[in-house]
Task: inverse folding
């Protein structure tokens, strides 16, 4: 949803898409994009080892749900239509500069996490409301963001589906923080990429599976890998 870049007046609303089954998604926006794609992050089993009781074929389609592993978490995390794009919005805390300037974005952005809605006030009498699959406040931990946004996609990848996690938003809204933080100083700060790799590597067999990873950053007309 292109409207998930909530966070007016320089606040940090970053949208996060997650998607599985390998379809592409595009939207028209001049925002900078960070893309963490699971398609190149492919899992290839080099043998038909029976040591794994779940399928890792990339050719599985949505109709192959009967072949999916019996994962309660997968089901729990996919209460909605399987295969559709899910969109979350995360608001970052004010930074020091904004605090000093007493930026008033709190007055124009109102998160309603229970209702999974974000309200953008245009003025005292008018507001637009946007619905999301997840609404993550400035107090949401990296762990929580991973669990609600990325873990379902990682589990789908481990079931043999393609999946994509993409963060978008204007500069400084927290895309790199959300996706790319390594957490070297503080492991609680680990971002989606590190946590995804941890879960994937914990699940695969290093003897029989191969894992490749790529991380893309799309900035208007340029892409860096
Ligand atoms: N949830 C958060 N909690 C605390 N600090 C955050 C959070 N999100 C972002 N920040 C901080 O905000 C600043 C900008 O974040 P970040 O670099 O991730 O933005 P970005 O969207 O990747 O920007 P750019 O598009 O310019 O690369 C950083 O200093 C980062 O540490």
Result:
């Amino acid at each position: 949803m292109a409207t998930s870049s909530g966070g007016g007046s320089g606040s940090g609303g970053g949208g996060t898409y997650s998607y599985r089954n390998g379809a592409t998604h595009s939207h028209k926006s001049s925002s900078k994009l960070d893309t963490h794609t699971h398609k190149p992050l492919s899992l290839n089993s080099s043998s038909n080892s029976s040591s794994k009781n779940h399928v890792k074929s990339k050719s599985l389609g949505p109709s192959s749900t009967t072949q999916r592993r019996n994962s309660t978490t997968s089901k729990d995390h996919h209460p909605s239509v399987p295969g559709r794009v899910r969109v979350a919005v995360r608001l970052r805390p004010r930074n020091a500069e904004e605090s000093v300037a007493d930026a008033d974005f709190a007055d124009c952005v109102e998160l309603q996490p229970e209702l999974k809605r974000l309200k953008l006030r245009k003025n005292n009498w008018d507001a637009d409301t946007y619905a999301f699959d997840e609404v993550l406040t400035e107090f949401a931990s990296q762990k929580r963001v991973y669990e609600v946004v990325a873990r379902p996609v990682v589990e789908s990848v481990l079931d043999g589906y393609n999946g994509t996690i993409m963060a978008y938003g204007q500069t400084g809204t927290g895309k790199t923080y959300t996706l790319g933080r390594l957490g070297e100083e503080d492991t609680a700060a680990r971002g989606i990429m590190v946590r995804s790799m941890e879960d994937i590597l914990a699940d695969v067999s290093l003897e029989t599976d191969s894992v490749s990873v790529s991380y893309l950053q799309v900035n208007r007309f340029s892409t860096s890998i």
Notes: Residues 16-94+140-224 form one domain. The pocket of adenosine-5'-triphosphate is lined by residues 12, 32, 92-93, 95, 169, 171-177 (CB under 6 Å). The longest helix spans residues 142-158. The longest strand covers residues 12-20.
